[in-house]
């Protein structure tokens, strides 16, 4: 056994390199042709039943509007009931023929089963499940006194998607439907102070890649890995290490800093377009894909860059982080942040 492993240690890199040199050109040509066909024959969403979790704000809200504009029937769920009803009303105005809301918390298994059961009772079928619900927690790991208070991140971001998917899977098999898994570029671009959030998104990515293999062609899975998109985080809202909801735009500037923030409506359009074309992965903005290549080929450089941008040169303080200092340069903030974020800053002053 050891002899075989020794042999593979020597030969696998060599054969992999030359194998990829011969395999990649025809493979990418095939994918190019496939993309043309998927664009021409993309799914007609009119009348399709779409269940979206975390639909009261951010990407989930805009996905509701985008699906509605295509004529889809919507089942929307979130914890904030009043805000959810507002989103539902706008979705009706945008063009959805039927919008149904469920007030629920996806971190609770019983709620996830109820969401699916009520959706099926109302519509009789399910075509798309969009696992969007998620929360953000920001804190240095060593500053968290009670680790158990971080469970909410995994319970919502990871287990919430798992619970809902398990409940919906029989109905998605019947309709040959689709699952949208909202992971994040944070699954590989691991910024400090977000260890549990990053871990939850990496777990989500690996879970749905495994599920894709298990399900084969019965249910198509699109994994979404957004970069920095307009959201509650970009407005400075997050959970602290103690589990308290905080609004702090200074820490937002540190965690986002010099990275340009993309429009949430544009992100939603890209996601729905990718799902309709059966894309396996959707990254918005698309340039964020290159960060994965840097992570694979130059992991040390990514680690050094994260320390340089997110941490001060002499410790973990956010006050002297390079990200924050870059934003203090005149004109940089207006160039990197969309108007919605700048307007929010003015209101909070």
Automatic annotation (TrEMBL):
It is found in: Membrane; Plastid, Chloroplast. It is a single-pass type II membrane protein. The chain crosses the membrane at residues 12-30. GO terms for cellular component: chloroplast; cytosol; membrane. Its main location: membrane. One of its GO terms (biological process) is steroid biosynthetic process. PROSITE patterns: ADH_SHORT. Keywords: Chloroplast, Lipid biosynthesis, Lipid metabolism, Membrane, NADP, Oxidoreductase, Plastid, Signal-anchor, Steroid biosynthesis, Transmembrane, Transmembrane helix. GO terms for molecular function: 17-beta-hydroxysteroid dehydrogenase (NADP+) activity. Gene3D superfamilies: NAD(P)-binding Rossmann-like Domain (3.40.50.720). Belongs to the short-chain dehydrogenases/reductases (SDR) family. This is 11-beta-hydroxysteroid dehydrogenase 1A.
């Amino acid at each position: 056994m050891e002899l075989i492993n020794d042999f593979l240690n020597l030969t696998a890199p060599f054969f992999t390199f030359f194998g990829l040199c011969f395999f990649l050109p025809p493979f990418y040509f095939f994918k190019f042709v496939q993309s043309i066909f998927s664009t021409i024959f993309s799914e007609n969403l009119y009348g399709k039943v779409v269940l979206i979790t975390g639909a009261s704000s951010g990407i989930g809200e805009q996905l509701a509007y985008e699906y509605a504009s295509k004529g889809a029937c919507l089942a929307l769920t979130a914890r904030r009931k009043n805000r959810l009803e507002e989103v539902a009303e706008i979705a009706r105005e945008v063009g959805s023929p039927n919008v149904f809301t469920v007030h629920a918390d996806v971190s609770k298994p019983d709620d996830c089963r109820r969401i699916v059961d009520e959706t099926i009772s109302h519509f009789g079928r399910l075509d798309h499940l969009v696992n969007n619900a998620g929360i953000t927690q920001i804190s240095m790991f060593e500053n968290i006194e009670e680790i158990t208070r971080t469970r909410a991140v995994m319970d919502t971001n990871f287990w919430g998607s798992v619970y809902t998917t398990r409940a919906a899977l029989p109905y998605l098999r019947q309709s040959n439907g689709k699952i949208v898994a909202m992971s994040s570029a944070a699954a590989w671009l691991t910024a400090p102070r977000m260890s549990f959030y990053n871990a939850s998104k990496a777990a989500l990515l690996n879970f749905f890649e495994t599920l894709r293999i298990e399900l084969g062609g019965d249910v198509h899975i699109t994994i979404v890995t957004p970069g920095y998109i307009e959201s509650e985080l970009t407005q400075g809202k997050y959970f602290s290490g103690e589990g308290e909801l905080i609004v702090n735009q200074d820490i937002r500037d540190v965690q986002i800093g010099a990275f340009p923030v993309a429009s949430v409506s544009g992100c939603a359009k890209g996601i729905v377009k990718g799902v309709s074309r059966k894309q396996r992965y959707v990254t918005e903005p698309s340039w964020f894909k290159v960060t994965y290549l840097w992570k694979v080929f130059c992991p040390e450089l990514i680690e050094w860059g994260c320390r340089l941008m997110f941490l001060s040169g002499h410790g973990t303080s956010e006050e002297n982080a390079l990200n924050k200092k870059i934003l203090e340069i005149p004109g940089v903030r207006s160039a990197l942040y969309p108007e919605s974020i700048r307007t929010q800053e003015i209101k909070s002053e």
